[in-house]
Amino acid sequence: MLMPSLDESFRSRRWTHDEGPRFWWHRLPGMDFIPPIYSDLTVAEWELVRQWYDETDRAGLIGECAVPFISLLHGLVMGNRIARIVQLGTCSGYSSLLLGFMLRRMNAPNGLFSLEIDPDLCALARGWLERAGLTNFVKIAELNSLDPNAAGAAADYLGGEPDLIILDSSHEYSATVQELDLWYPALRTGGILVLHDVSYFASGFDVTAQGGVQRAFAEWRQKNPQAEAICLNGESRSMELPRPPYKDACGVSLVHKPGAPTVS
Asked: Is the pLDDT reported for residue 4 higher than 70?
């Protein structure tokens, strides 16, 4: 029987005492355990994630989502076999890797279409996906999420309208308004759109200083009352506030695209 190494058995517990900013979740009280996003991985998959963290740490490429957000996506995708996913914003490839592992476990090829405008980040993410053997499951498209042809390209790759759209891109107010207007109609009826960074705290990520995702989503909801939405931690204004059940102060919103009511 192959016994795991010490590092393998500890997996993400290795970050419990790491003072780096990206490991804040692991330092919270009671978090000295391995969350399912990591415990579900094979030994080889975990080793690749560990290497991804080490290499992006050295390069200063920090900007991935944290455990609460990717765990929420893990539950949605794995619990419901969601196999047509669009991701607006790839960054360094963290969530593309983990979503790719989920799709491979579900035997769902061509399951994630991820858009990124930075050619260097596209190349970086593609390199990790190749190392992971996930190129049959994930496509990194060097494409602006505001391109009017982007939704069609996504549907062509996925084989239909997306069931899940993850909006986690520029965090700019104007761009987010345009993304919502473009991508909500592209979502299949009954589908879910997930927005990261919807809190007042995260509005500071908007380099244009116009209110970020928080303002964009608040205004969009008023104009689209038919969309069913829930927002978690939208009121958060600091990482230092007492944490509610959902731990990410950046906040998250889930938008459901309802169909026409049925007549009995």
From this structure: no
